[in-house]
Amino acid sequence: MALVGGFIPRRCGIATFTADVRASLAEAAPDLVVDVYAMAPAAAPILFDPVVRGIITEGDVGSFIDAARQIEASCADIVWLQHEFGLFGGSAGDMILELVDRVAAPLVVTLHTVLAEPDADQRRVMDRLIARAARIFVMSERSGDLLRSVYRADEDQIALIAHGVPDRPFGRASQFKPRFGFAGKQVALTFGLLSPGKGIEAVIEALPAIVEDHPDFLYCIAGATHPNLLVHEGEAYRDRLEALAVSLGVDAHVRWIDAFMETDDLLDLLEAADIYITPYTGAQQSTSGTLAYAMALGKAVISTPYVHAVELLADDHGVLVPFNDSEAITNEVRFLLGDADWLRTLQGRAYDRGRDMIWPVFAERSCALIAESRVVPKAAPIPDRIGIEGFLRICDDTGILQHSVHMIPDRAHGYCVDDNARALMLMHRLGEDALGRCGQLATVFAAFVQHAWNPDRGEFRNFMGFGGNWLEDVGSEDSCGRTLWALGATARDARDPGLRQWALELFERTAASALDFGSPRAIAFAMLGADFVLAGHPEHDLANRLLRSGADRLNALYGAAARPDWQWFEPVLAYDNCRLPEAMLRAGVRLERADVTACGVATLRWINDLQIAPHGHYRPIGSDCFGQAYALPRPFDQQPLEVWAAIDAASAAYDVTGDDIWLAHARRAYEWFTGANDRGVIVGDVLTGTSKDGINPRGLNLNEGAESVLAYQHATYSIRDFIRKVD
Q1: DSSP letters for 175-206
Q2: What would the pLDDT profile of 517-576 be if each residue is shown by its tens digit?
Q3: How far is the C-alpha of 623 from the C-alpha of 359, rounded, in Å?
Q4: 151, 452, 682, 711: which could form a disulfide with 417 (CB 3.0–4.6 Å)?
Q5: Using the 8-state DSSP alphabet, how is residue 638 labeled?
């Protein structure tokens, strides 16, 4: 597990919590390897504990990216993030997204603050974390309610585990008081980094009336001034508090401990107190570790009604007072000090509630959460055949519909020539049983492609509404290139001679448009179509021109973009990546050009290496990284189209090299459909032949669009053809 947060000896509550989490897990699960990635402030270098594997510097983008790469290389099964907005740098701490967006392991997030009214940046960061997280761990019911109502988190994401606390015996105040000079005193304590939000003024203002009845009363304020406050105003806030105590004549009843106390010293100090007071001024305090500690050590608690206190002190386990109400604090302290039996009863109730929060209980529940979140990629055998029902479900008399909402075809988005071209290609691959069930669909898809040609513009249209109206005059270059690919495949592979002749003639009328393509993928698609045509018509002039021109242009793009660590045709990655090296491999063989073949092999090896996860399974280039110049890929969202392309390209590489490693690559890619993936989920349904739209950080994208279904169908035929070829 990669555990990300503050860490000792950094002086903040998150650092202490993270260190305690690690220690409790080490005790409860000694076989669990926990790698700590510690947040470090930019201004003050820290010499961290030796267990820290990586250091992330607040505000330094590069250190977040480096940590993500380190976590990936470590094969972490889980990433557990301790989140607080002010810990990471950037707007509302958004720099942490540079890390979480680059790791594939399931993410567990502990939210130490959940705001009811976040600002725009805070909401943006929370939305991204929720979209990315497998589980969100909170320490109060109120935080869970806010996640549901304000942030729309899913119920199955949210886990409630009480803040971990130490396990010490009950009732030892008299034993510890002499150590701090409290002998013979009745002591109330407030602990934490000093800042205005702690509400300490209200307690100091309550002291005159308290000490009038209890002259041996002492109020201890322990904790260093908050580092951020020190930067802006030094010790001005502490000075104001001290001046307030002097002006009220109670300075002799206030004990200041101006230090960041180590955990054991803090616990000893808590044991020496009789009453613990948390007078926070804001209701949105999601978690208070010191409050949890005070209850676990059996202190009677007086608190303002912030979120965590309301829950922990419910059912007479403590006392709640209004915000900024000195008189209420006076009354409650005087009442407790005047009734020893009730004071003892309240202390005992607090201690009993703390038994459910001790670190061994916390660790046991955390280990269960980790086990639930962990993913085990597991491949199933490659099927001999797959069904066709899922494909037929999204077809009608016009063509194949683009999208589905889950398994239901979505008419709102109509049709596109991209999918109908792929569907036409599939008709030439189906077995006799499946083909018989498809009836006249081959001619339906061919008719769509034919109707997509716009002779006035000399290009194919792409998008059509459900009512049959074209939504554009000219489609993208990529959709035009993909259509030429389908025409070439149909000219070679269609069962019906008339369909083959139709495809060849339409290719000849339309393919010249590809000579001016600028998109590398459009060029590659057109090259693949031309190669199909040349397989049946070796002297075909236009197909030869397309193949030669495309090979020269991709070669030139490769020469301009490639560098030692980037063996690719562009400075960015996008979709259908493996089609580019596949086109070069097939062109190299057809044209007998060693330079083109070498380019295809080199680029395919490079892109394949990028798509092998550290655990060894296939990880297709995720759409989250598209368009990022010279940036290593991010893992999500993963889409079936990449799998089909990877198999076809590997098959082309095998034809060139005869190396069985390419079959291993193709098998690994196909197994992504069967469960050997970053979420251990089955993407393709063998029985119906349908496929989910991909894998996102939380698991499956449950929609079943045409592109995904067709990619699964084609990938299955491609891997079976490849295996037969090798055998």
Answers
A1: HHGGGGT-TT-EEEEEESSB-GGG-HHHHHHH
A2: 999 999 999 999 999 999 999 999 999 999 999 999 999 999 999 999 999 999 999 999
A3: 41
A4: 452
A5: B
* 189 phi, psi to nearest 5 deg: -130, 140
Q: Label the pairing between strands 275-278 and 254-257.
A: unpaired
Tokens read off for 1: 């597990």
How are beta strands 459-460 and 453-454 bridged, if at all?
antiparallel
Looking at residue 118, its pLDDT comes to 95
Comparing CA positions, the residue from 677, 667, 712 lying closest to residue 692 is 712
Q: Is it the case that residue 283 has pLDDT exceeding 80?
A: no
Determine the pLDDT at residue 263. Answer: 83
Q: Please report where in the chains the tokens 């279904």 appear, as a residue.
A: 709
**Which residue do the tokens 């810990």 mark?**
87
Question: Do residues 544 and 507 touch, judged by C-beta distance below 8 A?
Answer: no
Q: Hey, CA dihedral for 533, 538, 543, 548, is it positive or negative?
A: positive
Distance CA(105)–CA(110), nearest Å, equals 16
The C-alpha torsion from 511 through 513 and 515 to 516, rounded to 10°, is: -160
> What does 562-596 look like in DSSP terms, one character per residue?
-BTTB-SSSSS--SSTTHHHHHHHHHHHHHT-HHH
Residue 231 pLDDT exceeds 90 = no
Distance CA 690, CA 143 (A): 39
- Which helix (H) or strand (E) segment is 720 a member of? helix 706-726
Burial class (CB in 10 A: 0-12, 13-18, 19+), 187: buried
Rg (CA), the chain: 33
